[in-house]
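User: My advisor asked me to double-check a structure prediction for Methyltransferase family protein before group meeting. I don't want to rely on an old file, so could you generate it fresh from this sequence?
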Amino acid sequence: MMENRGAPIPAEAFALDEEDPAFAGQALYSTKVLRVYDAVVVHASNALVWRCPARAIRALYAHHVSDAHLDVGPGTGYYVDRSGLPGEHPRLALLDANLDVLRFAAHRLRRFRPQLHAADVLKPLPLAPGTYGSIGLSYVLHCLPGDIDSKAVVFDNLKALLRPGGVLFGSTLVNAGCRHNRAARAMMRAYNGKGVFSNLDDDFEGLERALAQRFSRFEVHRRGSAALFAAMP
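Assistant: Sure, here is a fresh prediction for Methyltransferase family protein from the sequence you gave:
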């Protein structure tokens, strides 16, 4: 585990082993890919393939983000950048296993001087419990290995970091029982074949069950091939 605030991350600080089951889901996101990510994924793929336009996820952030926010798998930092972080001096932290992602998002969000955590969200997180008013988890679950029941350990790891009244929210692409368009079906097969996604058996009901087992209140909404969720302890 490595922490940093407002400074570059040493390249040797953290890296998933190539034999780790979670490696393939994050290895794609190099700096080169991140430079085109907003255009290709955030705008084009979300609207045309997954039928969950970026504005739907932006609205999720706008509704739930707090003045003490942890973003897990921040990508390019697009959603946090447009979230309208409240408060005069909001406290922002970013967590990812991919150092390129952390560097890219931290640069974009440098005005907030984010605290950076290089870590695997599937493993115990040595962050202070009860710290955050909100935790964002957008488009992360479908990249993690295993089925919903096994990858739901992420919810256990993150729930402990919420302060009283806090909320864990995010989005994920599901496959089982979902009516995809032709492009979505093709992309699901391709990405799962390469190990970028691991969600062939993920479904809305499994996500709801995992949240119900861990949170006193939660909601899950369908939007195209995506599930948008929010959960409170």
